[in-house]
Amino acid sequence: MKPVTIIGIGMTVEDLTARHLEIIDQAEILVGGKRLLNHFKKSPARKKLIGRDIDSVIHFISREMKKKQVVVLASGDPMFFGIGRRLVEAIGAKNTRVYPNISSVAAAFARIKEPWDDVQVISLHGRKNEALLFNSLEEENKIAVFTDPNNNPAWLAARLLKNQIINYDICVLEAMGSETEKVNWYPLSTAAQMKFADPNMVVLKPRPPGTKDKRPLVLGGPESWYHHQNGLITKSEIRAISLAKLRLAADHILWDLGAGSGSIAIEAALFIKRGRIFAVEKKSERVAQIKSNKKRFGIGNLTAVQARLPRGLAELPRPDRIFIGGGGKHLKSIISAAAQYLKPQGVMVINTVLIPNVEAARLTLEKLGFETDIIQVQINRSRQMPWAERLEALNPVWIISGMRKVE
Q1: Is residue 352 scored above 70 in pLDDT?
Q2: Where are the domains of the chain?
Q3: What integer pLDDT is reported at residue 45 of this predicted model?
Q4: Residues 217, 198: contact at Cβ < 8 Å?
Q5: pLDDT at res. 81
């Protein structure tokens, strides 16, 4: 049995080394897509076309490798969303040799002069990865997307617009490595109406917040409107309910403790017109996010404060309302410390996804003389499937409300 050699072509045959070409010249059977095989028409090797039925091609290779020298031609890097993975799994690592080349993602980011060590790569090429894509979009990642004729750039741009994800620039790279190569950035609304040459791929890049990136201030705005990381943001539906529980008035002072991206503090400004809002967060990078979101939404009465709770509260003006969205294992001490400053008839609202913290919050509030109320909120959001939509559950959230009793 002869090992099967898998060679990545790169973007063009010009990316092949002398060693690559030597191996291809020695092949008895060349396997590849039509475009790649066309580069080696003069080769005396038997040609096997890779079509849609990958399983039959792998069966052919498994049979022929027993007597013949089989070389498989792959575009880009064969182990990066390529046929290399399937072949190694099917015939075994000991029976394969892999020669990588320039991947289309590396080539794409070289074209647009951007680093790609922080890029999330998602393939929609024959894959149902839309949920993964939208989760990544919510986290404001820089994303490279492998497309196919159905999940094409126009479809993708339209899906983003439908879901109100408008803070991304889209770059479409068409026919990379060919004479007809095109690389252009487009507004989403323009890309949604266009047709693009195959093969192509897409780069999605979040726009930095700035004057051109203003957002309308609404209750329960989409998470994608906020600058945040790794999904660490109060989801829009939970945000609306939590703000309702706070019972805010125009002249209130609100503390948002463990503020994260500051989404609760931002939307509280819809109700607090003459008062002040303080978003307290321990991590400097999240304080920077709060400040960028403040600028993005044009909130004038919001102050971001970096402090490790429960420290830092004594310097703030006494609040009418307190929201706690974090706390973790320190929740009891944070509640107790914050309650010392809360005005008479003040309200404290706590969000948690941790079961032990539900009871910890309730007991702590009641010991401090609060009347308590607990609700659990379970949100299911629609997700697009190939021909219909399904519901996808988010983590259940407990919302514990405490109102200070009149003395």
Answers
A1: yes
A2: 4-102, 106-206, 211-404
A3: 93
A4: no
A5: 85
390 backbone dihedrals φ, ψ, rounded to 5°? -125, 170
The contacts found for 65-69 with CB under 8 angstroms, 24 or more apart, are 65/1, 65/2, 65/3, 65/4, 65/91, 65/95, 66/1, 66/2, 67/2, 68/2, 68/28, 68/29, 69/2, 69/5, 69/26, 69/27, 69/28, 69/29
Two tokens, residue 152: 């094409």
Give dist(CA 276, CA 317) in Å, integer: 9
- The two most distant CA atoms of the chain are separated, in Å, by 95
Per-residue model confidence (pLDDT) at position 40? 93
Give the pLDDT confidence score for residue 406 in this predicted structure. 65
Tokens 């509030």 belong to which residue? 365
Q: Check if the beta carbon of residue 75 is closer than 8 Å to that of residue 104.
A: yes
Measured between alpha carbons, how far is 141 from 119 in angstroms, rounded to an integer?
Answer: 7
Structure tokens at 190: 């323009």
pLDDT of residue 165: 77
Alpha-carbon span 379 to 381, nearest angstrom: 6
Q: Of 264, 191, 251, whose CA–CA distance to 223 is shortest?
A: 264
Cβ neighbours around 86 below 10 Å, total: 14
Residues 31-79 pLDDT 10s: 999 989 999 999 999 999 998 888 899 999 999 999 999 999 998 899 9
Nearest to 189 by CA among 208, 162, 149: 162
Decide: 256 and 287 in contact? Cβ < 8 Å.
no
Looking at domain 106-206, its CATH superfamily turns out to be Tetrapyrrole methylase, C-terminal domain (3.30.950.10)
What are the φ/ψ torsions at residue 179 (nearest 5 degrees)?
-70, -20
Residues 140-185 pLDDT 10s? 678 999 999 888 999 999 988 887 677 788 999 999 988 899 999 9
Given a contact cutoff of 8 angstroms between Cβ atoms, the answer to whether 236 and 187 are in contact is: no
Note whether 230 and 217 are within 8 A (CB).
Answer: no
The residue among 26, 104, 40, 134 whose CA lies nearest residue 71 is: 26
CATH 2.60.40.1230 fits 211-404, yes or no: no
Bridge partner list, 173: 183, 201
CATH for 4-102? 3.40.1010.10
CA 134 remoteness from chain centre: 6
Alpha-carbon distances, residue 34 vs 2, 40, 54, 287, 327 (angstroms): 24, 10, 14, 53, 58
